[in-house]
Specification:
With 410 residues, this protein is of the alpha/beta class. It has 18 helices and seven strands.
């Protein structure tokens, strides 16, 4: 980072913090960002650190750092640059010296190779010939140069209402942007990027989307954070006679054929669980309420779910190494469905199910009692997820794709 700016970037699960401050910025800004007003290169020290680490660098608490980045929603502000046509600090120093020596405006302009009107306006807007000071004028010019442009959602009220309505339906900004493009391909007025929606939510200074709509995002976070996935150590022991995912047919991997499912348990407080199933080809979701995670209960619930579907649409099930599927052979005998198990510490091998579990946390937050939800409630949540457009499906919904598969089975 140069001596004229600050850049505290984040790695996974850390915030972005960047503020451009000229070395002639106010003492308050400089003291907060650099400590004592000196410009120092903090990149190697602070890059990738969390709020507490950043706060230690600046001699501030993490709450102070949070308060500073909150107005920008944790999103890196755009870097400001001076126009090549604008007067520089050196040119303003030349104007100041020329005025001190009693030179005419034309003579000063000639030395700067600028139009006399440019020099005249510069002096007039900064107090006149007597009070003119180069450094103060340069700071004022930097502040006056801001020309905030209203974002598209601010300029198009109807589009803003459509976006807000779909956010209330718990659609993600990416789903909304994709759906608008798919349903209004010829109308530019209905084109908006998901990033614009995120920025309008997190940067409340825009005054476009209400802050309350953040509650409809999956994470409910007040500022932007990066995605982060951790691979947990496998400490649950071996499952007898399990078949590795490496033996799964290649036709399952490419998702070309429907009928291959991924499954897992969503956990809550008080040893409460929900069975989650996702079909790989259509991303169709099914949920099942279970009283406990013992293998007999889980396998019985899976058998019950399997019997609701045509045989052509349930050919295999891929699970992690949880001991709740120790009795997987009973499931296979009852349904004639093959069961495959992922490698240790490899959640990405069940990517559709992992992504769905993250979506489900919007409805069933961590640390809450999942036993309080009825099967009817689970069916409602599954239906809402299945009716959302998905980018990976060309902004069709899983329900549309799955119904097409059901129809094709006759």
């Amino acid at each position: 980072m140069s001596g004229h700016g600050g850049d505290l970037n984040r790695s996974a699960q850390h915030f972005t913090f960047e503020t451009e401050v000229e070395c002639d910025a106010t003492k308050t800004e400089a003291a907060f960002l650099y400590g004592g007003g000196e410009c120092r290169d903090l990149g190697p020290m602070a890059r990738g650190e969390g709020l507490k680490s950043i706060g230690r660098v600046f001699g501030k608490g993490s709450s102070s750092i949070f308060a500073h980045i909150c107005p920008t929603g944790g999103i890196r502000p755009a870097t400001r640059r001076r126009s090549r046509l604008a007067l520089t600090l050196a040119e303003r120093e030349e104007i100041s010296r020329g005025l001190a020596h009693g030179h005419s405006l034309r003579k000063i302009a000639c030395r700067l190779e600028r139009a006399p009107s440019t020099v005249s306006r510069e002096i007039a807007r900064n107090g006149g010939s007597g009070p003119y000071r180069a450094a103060a004028s340069d700071r004022q010019a930097w502040r006056r140069a801001r020309r905030p442009k209203a974002c598209k959602l601010a300029r198009h009220p109807h589009l803003r209402r459509v976006v807000a309505r779909h956010l209330r339906r718990n659609w993600s900004p990416q789903q909304i942007a994709g759906w608008l493009k798919s349903n209004h391909p010829e109308d530019e007025a209905f084109r908006v990027s998901h990033e614009t929606i995120y920025r309008s939510l997190f940067v409340q200074a825009r005054g476009v989307l209400k802050k309350a709509l953040i509650e409809h995002l999956r994470t409910h976070r007040p500022i932007r954070r990066s995605r982060h996935a951790t691979a947990k150590a496998d400490t649950r022991g071996e499952i007898p006679d399990m078949v590795s995912i490496r033996e799964r047919p290649a036709s399952v991997d490419d998702r070309a054929v429907p009928g291959h499912w991924e499954g897992d348990l969503l956990s809550g407080s008080g040893n409460s669980y929900i069975v989650t199933l996702v079909e790989r080809h259509t991303r169709y979701v099914m949920l099942a309420k279970i009283p406990s995670r013992d293998t007999q209960t889980v396998v019985s619930a899976l058998i019950k779910q399997a019997k609701k579907l045509p045989d052509e649409l349930y050919k295999s099930l891929t699970w992690d190494r949880g001991k709740e599927l120790t009795d997987h052979k009973r499931f296979t005998r009852a349904t004639n469905i093959a069961v495959y198990f992922c490698d240790p510490q490899s959640p990405w091998q069940r990517g559709s199910n992992e992504n769905t579990n993250r979506l489900l946390r919007q409805y069933f937050p961590k640390g809450t009692d999942l036993s309080a939800h009825s099967q009817a409630r689970l069916n409602y949540v599954a239906r809402e997820l299945n009716e959302r457009p998905r980018m990976t499906l060309g902004y069709q919904s899983p329900a549309e794709r799955f119904q097409a598969c059901v129809a094709s089975t006759g």
